[in-house]
Amino acid sequence: MLDLVARSVKDPDKVLVGEAKLGGTVGTVGPLAAKAARCPDLQGKRLTHAVWILRARRGDPRLVTGAEVVEVLR
Questions:
Q1: What's the confidence (pLDDT) of residue 24?
Q2: According to the model, what pLDDT value does residue 30 have?
Q3: φ, ψ of residue 22 in degrees (nearest 5)
Q4: Terminal CA-to-CA distance of the chain, rounded, Å?
Q5: Burial level of 7, CB count in 10 A (0-12/13-18/19+)?
Q6: How many C-beta neighbours within 10 Å does residue 39 have?
Q7: DSSP strand pairing (46-56 vs 4-7)
Q8: CA–CA dist 19, 71 (Å, integer)
Q9: Going residue by residue through the chain (74 aa), what tens digit of pLDDT does each one get?
Q10: Phi and psi of 66, rounded to 5°?
Q11: 41, 56 contact by CB (below 8 A)
């Protein structure tokens, strides 16, 4: 299931598609992209995929946890 689908206000052909997970790895994005590709309403749209992960395995700089985001904002 897709947890978030948000169309750009400035360009309706751009859509943010996302999921929230308790844990995961960079590989979590692949299944999200496949789910989005099967959604008829998203056909022909330019998609940005995002996965929000509460607890991520460390070591991959592409993964940022919620705690890390909050820490940077302090």
A1: 75
A2: 84
A3: -75, -35
A4: 33
A5: middle
A6: 14
A7: unpaired
A8: 22
A9: 899 999 999 999 999 999 888 887 778 878 889 999 999 999 999 999 888 887 776 666 667 777 787 888 88
A10: -60, -40
A11: no
